[in-house]
Amino acid sequence: MITFLVYFLIISLIPLYAQMKVKSTYKKYSQVQASSGLTGAQVARRILDQNGLYDVRIEETPGFLSDHYDPRSKTVRLSSNNYHGTSLAGSAVAAHEVGHAIQDQQDYAFLRFRHALVPVANFGSNVSWILILAGMFFTAFRDLMLLGIIFMAAAVLFQVVTLPVEFNASSRAMQQIVSVGAIRNEEEHETKKVLNAAAMTYVAAASVAVLELLRLILIYTGMTRSDD
């Protein structure tokens, strides 16, 4: 019982810490104005144009840190603060999302793989726990638990593949944001802090997903041994 509580505490605190870290870092550097005076939308447009992505649109979207790139409509969507603001945090986030647009343009392998995994991951997330619980509580349906674990593994794979996609987008963001003159050399360190904090949320999500998958595999193997 104590072991389970410790485990539950760990998987609860990891994503909570990551969220707190990204919010505190974003809040800090959203109050630091970029020397270029460019808004997030202007930074995004400069980087897109420099890479020949004239057809990619930039739109304002509601919400806090709701920024994302939509590959279907070829649109970079920036939350209001980042769209209109001239902070280092806003510039970093805008450049990161444009990094995904550049990945899309260049057919970045991990991005394509992640897109291909979306339907499988969504299906796995929706049905895996139903199958796992059925297999856990009904001995006659033990194989359903294994099937559920397989479906969950597909969802976990999506989380893991997301890591190189996000880190690569941040790497591209740093290169591009300097190249277009959106930040100066002395501002690079602070910009990296924003990008690294955001990346930690994905690391945390993937870590928790992998831990939960391993726990279920151990439970399944233990139950099958006891059945024998």
Pick out its properties.
228 residues; 3-stranded mixed sheet; transmembrane helix; Zinc metallopeptidase; Zn_peptidase_2; mainly alpha
Please describe the biggest sheet, giving its number of strands, its sense, and whether it closes into a barrel: 3 strands, mixed
Order of helices and strands: HHEEEHHHHH
Number of helices: 7
Major sheet: order of its strands?
A: 1-3-2
List how many beta strands DSSP finds. Answer: 3
Structural class: mainly alpha
Which stretches are poorly predicted, pLDDT < 50 over at least 5 residues?
Answer: none
Count of individual domains: 1
**Rounded Rg:** 21 Å
User: What does the overall shape look like?
Assistant: elongated
Residue share in helices? over 70%
Average of the residue pLDDT scores: 91
How much β-strand is present in the residues?
5-15%
Ends apart, CA distance between termini = 25 Å
What can you tell me about this protein's structure?
The longest helix has 40 residues, at 188-227. The protein has one domain. It is built from 7 helices and 3 strands. It has a 3-stranded mixed beta sheet. The chain is elongated, with a radius of gyration of 21 Å. The chain is mainly alpha-helical and 228 residues long. Helix 5 runs antiparallel to helix 6 (142-179) and helix 6 packs antiparallel against helix 7 (188-227). Strand 2 and strand 3 form a beta hairpin. The chain starts with a helix and ends with a helix.
